[in-house]
């Protein structure tokens, strides 16, 4: 067993109790420098390990919780200085991110807001997003765009590609994307994404963008009305360090992809759940109530263009390129 694994076992077996570097060194038969190196490596993997001078190291007992330290330590070096805010319970990470922007303006970006539970989580078209305590990763990322406003719709596409890739890499899954921004696994929705813009009314330009990402990490608490629709990326749920790794991977990929809005379209297309499938299209024109999907049109999904639009062909042979907005589709 490696020194890192031995240190991890020792800390897990003594949760909430501090073990000094000297104790760990003697117990494991290695140098204190080796213990310090092992702790640093574990933190880089997202494990939350507290360190107090003259007391040593301690791993908290709540291993389902996500913390600022665990996320920051899991980020690549160039992002560890970004603004991170981790809460126990808040109304919505998107709402908190918007409050942050109102207080700090452009200097708030890039930033990420995370929490263990949302009391008023939101999805597209005004829908609520079920956000029980510790059964999901609830995350909002703030960026200040350097690209033209006409390309802002690609941010949601980038977020979907980044999130799908991150889930697969960290959790060993094989997720798909239902246009435009829902992540699916084994036929069930495991993640929703909502992007909101903060606009300067004087210039008409976007000052900042907030992208909220809600990932179901456990399916223990789904209410009856969601059990046939929603799924999770893990039957047993993720531990705190695993959530930290996943959050860091999503943040890194999202910020990299949105820097110049490139590098993700091929991945997005490859992960598409709808291309070459029969679908039903619901738009404002065909819906009487935005909360109820009525009057859809049957279509065939031909592909996705470079702007993230879904190219469809209706039964009468006419073609249209759908943009996200007030459009939704169903397989």
Describe the structure.
This protein has 331 residues and is α+β, with helices and mostly antiparallel strands. It has 3 domains: 3-58, Orthogonal Bundle (Arc Repressor Mutant, subunit A), CATH 1.10.10; 68-270, Bira Bifunctional Protein, Domain 2 (BirA Bifunctional Protein, domain 2); 278-330, SH3 type barrels (Roll). Helices cover 29% and strands 26% of the residues. It has 8 helices and 14 strands. The protein has helices at residues 3-12, 21-28, 32-44, 68-74, 93-104, 154-171, 240-260, 265-270; strands spanning 50-52, 56-58, 83-90, 111-118, 136-143, 176-178, 182-185, 188-199, 206-216, 278-282, 297-304, 310-314, 319-322, 328-330. The strands form 3 sheets. A 7-stranded mixed sheet has the order 3-4-5-9-8-7-6, with helices on both faces. The protein has a 5-stranded antiparallel sheet with strand order 13-12-11-10-14, with no helix packed on it. A two-stranded antiparallel sheet has the order 1-2. A hairpin with a 3-residue loop joins strand 1 (50-52) and strand 2. Helix 1 (3-12) packs across helix 3, helix 2 (21-28) crosses helix 3 and helix 6 packs antiparallel against helix 7. The radius of gyration is 22 Å and the shape is elongated. The protein starts with a helix and ends with a strand. The relative contact order is 0.12. Residues 286-291 have low confidence and may be disordered.
């Amino acid at each position: 067993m490696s020194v890192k694994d031995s240190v991890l076992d020792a800390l897990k077996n003594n949760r909430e109790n501090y073990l000094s570097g000297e104790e760990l060194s003697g117990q494991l038969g290695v140098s204190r420098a080796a213990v310090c190196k092992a702790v640093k490596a574990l933190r880089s993997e997202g494990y939350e390990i507290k360190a107090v001078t003259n007391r040593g190291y301690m791993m908290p007992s709540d291993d389902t919780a996500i913390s600022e330290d665990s996320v920051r330590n899991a980020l690549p070096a160039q992002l560890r200085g970004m603004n991170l805010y981790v809460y126990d319970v808040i109304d919505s990470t998107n709402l908190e991110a918007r409050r942050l922007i109102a207080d700090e303006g452009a200097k708030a970006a890039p930033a990420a807001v995370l929490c263990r539970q949302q009391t008023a989580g939101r999805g597209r078209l005004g829908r609520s997003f079920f956000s029980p305590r510790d059964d999901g990763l609830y995350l909002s990322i703030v960026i200040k765009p350097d690209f033209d406003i006409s390309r802002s719709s690609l941010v949601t596409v980038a977020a979907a590609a980044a999130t799908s890739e991150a889930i697969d890499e960290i959790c060993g899954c094989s997720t798909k994307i239902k246009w435009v921004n829902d992540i699916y696994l084994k036929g069930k929705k495991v993640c929703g994404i909502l992007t909101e813009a903060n606009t300067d009314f004087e210039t008409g330009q976007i000052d900042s963008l907030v992208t909220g990402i809600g990932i179901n990490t456990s399916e223990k608490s789904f209410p009856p009305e969601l059990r046939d629709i929603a799924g999770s990326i893990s039957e047993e749920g993720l531990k705190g360090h695993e959530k930290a790794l996943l959050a860091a991977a999503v943040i890194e990929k999202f910020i990299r992809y949105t820097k110049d809005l490139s590098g993700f379209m091929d991945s997005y297309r490859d992960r598409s759940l709808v291309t070459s499938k029969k679908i039903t299209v619901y738009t404002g024109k065909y819906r009487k109530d935005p909360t109820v999907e009525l009057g859809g049109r049957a279509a065939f999904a031909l592909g996705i263009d470079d702007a993230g639009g879904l190219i469809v062909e209706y039964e009468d042979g006419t073609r249209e390129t759908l943009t996200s907005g007030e459009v939704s589709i169903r397989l």
